[in-house]
# Entry
Amino acid sequence: MKPGPFVHHAPRTVDEAVAVLAQVGHDGKVLAGGQSLIPVLNMRLASPGHLVDINGVAGLAGVDVDDRWVRVGALVRHAGLERHAGAGAALPLLRQALRNVAHPAIRNRGTTVGSITHADPAGEMPAVAVLTGGVVEAVGPDGRREIAACDFFEGPLETTLADDELVEAVRFGRFPSGTLTAFVESARRSGDYALAGVAVAVEVEDGLVRAARASFVSVTPVPTLLDLGPVLAGTEAAAPVPDELLDLVRAHVDPESDIHAGADYRRMLAAELTRRALAATRSRDEGAA
Amino acid sequence: MTRVHVTVDGVQYSDDIEPRMLLVHYLREVVGKVGTVIGCDTSNCGACTVHLDGASVKSCNVLAVQADGHEVTTIEGIAVDGELHPMQQAFHEHHALQCGYCTPGMIMQALDLVRENPTPSEEEIRLGLEGNLCRCTGYQNIVKAVAACASTMETSTTARPERSAAR
# Structure
């Protein structure tokens, strides 16, 4: 057996799931897609005594699109969201980012909400949640509450979610019309954890940049928003990216060195990827909105 | 121990298992489907790829209890009456295997790919198979086999209605 022993709970409703979480406390872990959790269990990096498997919970598999939000339920698989026509039309950044999440078989099983709740700095979807001004919808024994994505991430693999809370859904904010987006990342092998990655959103009006921002993957401890406005606002959207912008990115990111790449290289890479992402927003072929 | 009821390659099985048992271990050690192999056990290599309710998953990355009440298809379940599945046939004809260890996973992932995208370009095939590693590095012929199979499967599904319309 690869994982350590645990008790498997299979609640059928959100209330049941929350009740089990409240009972087992810190010794419990929610299992949705399991595409990060099960490898961690297999390698015995963690051995929770209880797994609360929410795959049988009704009402968590929906994607809802309205004027302001794309709401993604806790059991929506990455592949399902990637294929969802309404979500793709409302927020093209979702698809632009999702196709970078691991491999197709992992995307068939892994959930977007689970990826956000896992809060890995190398995760693509936490950065997207922050860039879109997303909201995490949590439910606990005391009821429901909403956490802004920018307040949700505390550190690598750490969030402000309590042990007895379940994330029911994440809402991604829609951009004003005329916003162009792109997601670019670089990994040693396609589908591996990115050395660095970036999501950008640029609001354009009459050919001029009105507002622009970015959030990053693998080069900040938690995804944070970088306002590119001070450099880009008022400039022509089609103009080459100025060097000052690269300086702005290099000053914002705080990468660590590891076996795959040094901190300096990652800082340089984050800046270059931001330049490429901004260039990609101008070319629909490159996956811009 | 937990009782699970799983349909594997069209046959229903009921077994008492530990919740921590991985699907790949259940398939190999309990059901006896040793055609599905274990490669890396860390979700990197894709050798253990099977279909869960028709979509590809890495079976070292799913608990067997999560297949309770669901349908699993392995490499052993895609041939019909001893006749190879067109994808298996294409791998045979294009010499898309060297040592053969990655082949079960490659074929199951390739089927997922053509289900999603019946006419994939070479680049789309490579992207679709990016989660499956061949350490003989025999990718060239694997990509050829998938492309050839996709075009024959596409022809066979589109040709039929045309023929009946002609009558």
In short: Residues 139-166 of chain B form the longest helix (28 residues). The two ends of chain B are 59 Å apart (CA to CA).
